[in-house]
Amino acid sequence: MNRITNRTKGSDPELFIVNKKTGKVVSSIGLIPGEKGKPWTGDDMPSGFGLEIDNILAEFNIPPARDKMSFVNSIEYMKNYIQRFVQEKNPNLDILCAASQKVPVDQLKSPEARLFGCSVDYNVYTESENPKPNGERTNTRSAGLHIHCGYQNYNTGTSLQLIKYFDMYLGIPSILWDTDTQRRSLYGKAGCFRLTGYGFEYRVLSSAMMKTPELVGRIWDCVMRAINAYNQRLPLLDGELIQSIINENKVDLAKGVISDYQILPEDKIFDGPF
């Protein structure tokens, strides 16, 4: 196995737009500029940032980060940017970082609102395609916080192994902080990934993991622990156990595994979400 060096981490998080008066989700279509794969860059945005829509969600891009502060600050910058952007159009609008939401039917009329998944993603344990949800059959929409990991001399075998470490050191702890159980009926099951031209995209986490800067910081810390565990060749949990904990939200089992394998420092094991 290659040793992971010169790593970078980026993200393309999604979030909901909501009406503060009604508490209901508002479609980003026609509200947020940019198209999927063709992000819009504002004149006041620094290089590497972008904004687009994905289904009814607002999605943003951040530049690759080499340190925790840059990663946290970039995500906070875009959250604040989008909040200001929509409130300039309608002061009653706001952003919502959540794993899933029920969306009013009148916000799902456009073809884009019924389209799920521009590209297929895969299950690292079966190395097969994940089934694509059918947007015609549900008004639930989910928001992801995908982690893009780049590293020197990337290759498929290393990426597939590293994704399993991400599940163990990031995916499992995340269910302590994100208790939503609806999103994984659509997306984000254990081992969900795409390979990229620089490494891989880890697609298990939800937008709820960026509710606070502290949570975003925990993502960075967990990723670093996963990479260090890989580099030290620490033992991996059985894949079926990892999938069971994450996909079925087995919080008590997660806490036991985290303690037994020292996945998190003791002071980072919390009883509930933010």
Low-confidence stretches: none
Query: What is the quaternary state of this protein?
Result: single chain
**Which architecture does the CATH hierarchy give at level 2?**
2-Layer Sandwich
Strand content range? 15-25%
What would you say this structure looks like, in words?
By secondary structure, the protein is of the alpha+beta class. Helices cover about 30% and strands about 20% of the residues. Helix 1 runs antiparallel to helix 3, helix 2 packs across helix 3 (about 215-230) and helix 2 (about 155-175) packs across helix 5. The protein is globular. It starts with 7 loop residues before the first strand and ends in a 14-residue tail after the last helix.
List keywords for this structure.
274 residues; alpha+beta; six-stranded antiparallel sheet; 5 helices
In short:
The chain is α+β, with helices and mostly antiparallel strands. The protein has helices at 68-89, 156-177, 213-231, 239-247, 251-260, and strands at residues 8-11, 14-19, 25-26, 50-54, 57-61, 93-96, 100-102, 122-123, 128-129, 140-142, 147-150, 192-195, 199-202. It has a single domain (10-264), classed as Creatine Kinase, Chain A, domain 2.
